Amino acid sequence: MIYERLRTVPTADELLDQAFRRALRPAKAGKGRGVVSIQRSMVQTVADVLSVRLLKTVHDFPNFDELSPFYYELTETIVGIERLKMSLASVQWAGNKVRSIARDYQKKMKYGDPVHIRKQAYARIASIVNEVDENLRFLNDARGKLRKLPEISQVPTIIVAGYPNVGKSSFVRRVTDAKPEIATYPFTTKGIYIGHFYRDKMRYQVVDTPGLLDRPLDSRNAIELQAISALKHVGDLVLLLIDPAEHCGYPLTAQLSLLRGIEQTLAIPVLAVANKCDLADFHGEWEYKISTETGYGVNDVVQRAIEIIEVSGREREEDLTGARNTDVVVSA
């Protein structure tokens, strides 16, 4: 995944401590050398350590303008791309500025007290690094969040959606190799989880989304926006789970309203599936009903989802304009 190799971003204090410690080596090894030469080497060492580390931090991050729509929107949702760009620009400025300051003060040593000038250079360099400490801390925090993003494969993908506690995580766990946390309180799935399964030697991907609540886009929280990103950019089909027994804590009317909202928002097929059919108070006539608890009907629903994806894929290939299939498969 594009973010998994991001290295820890040190704080300003950590960088300065490392650089100043490293600069002691030229001083200790400077027997037989002139004072000016030793002091210049110390300043050069500090500048090299800081500049290299600062610029490596910048180069570790990808070019955000080249990200896929999926990763671009997730990055924007989780940490904010503009703030990332501004922080990286500040760190890059600091890395270049440190070298410039080192050159200027090395030249001054020829005409003044080299020890005093070296101390002045240290102070000036330290002020530059401290100036971007907030940026460094933000980048390290962003690194921690972005490294947790899942890797999305370029294979047929089923998006599992629905209100919290309707059984999304249980479904993904039953049909794939992914094992998301399962509990009985809302928003168990705190991010996007990925699982895979094989049918007829074909690899399929299942994306477990956070709970999608039936509210306008601008009122959704970060977790819900993650789900929307997945739905818009990586799905070939939305498998919307509904809990007719309302054990999830949300009325059926609200769940059906969510279904209509997804139909209106997304340009991919939607398959509505009623879960928890093993419960005594399960009700309603549903063409597709399952129990993620017992496994009843799960294989049949997976097979139907595959059939819809195959049909949709053929229709896309035949569509000269490249528009995505907008047929919605719903039965209740």
UniProtKB/TrEMBL annotation:
Q: Which residues form the NOG1 N-terminal helical domain?
A: 3-152
Domain of life, per lineage: Archaea
**Alphabetical keyword list:** GTP-binding, Hydrolase, Nucleotide-binding
SUPFAM superfamilies in the record, alphabetically? P-loop containing nucleoside triphosphate hydrolases (SSF52540)
Q: Name one GO molecular function term.
A: hydrolase activity
Question: Which Pfam families does this one have?
Answer: NOG1 (PF06858), NOG1_N (PF17835)
Q: Could you tell me the EC number(s) of this protein?
A: 3.6.5.-
Residues annotated as domain Nucleolar GTP-binding protein 1 Rossman-fold: 223-278
Q: What is the enzyme's main class?
A: hydrolase
Q: Which PANTHER family match?
A: NUCLEOLAR GTP-BINDING PROTEIN 1 (PTHR45759)
Instruction: Quote the protein name from its UniProt record.
Output: GTPase Obg
Q: Which organism is it from?
A: Candidatus Methanogaster sp. ANME-2c ERB4
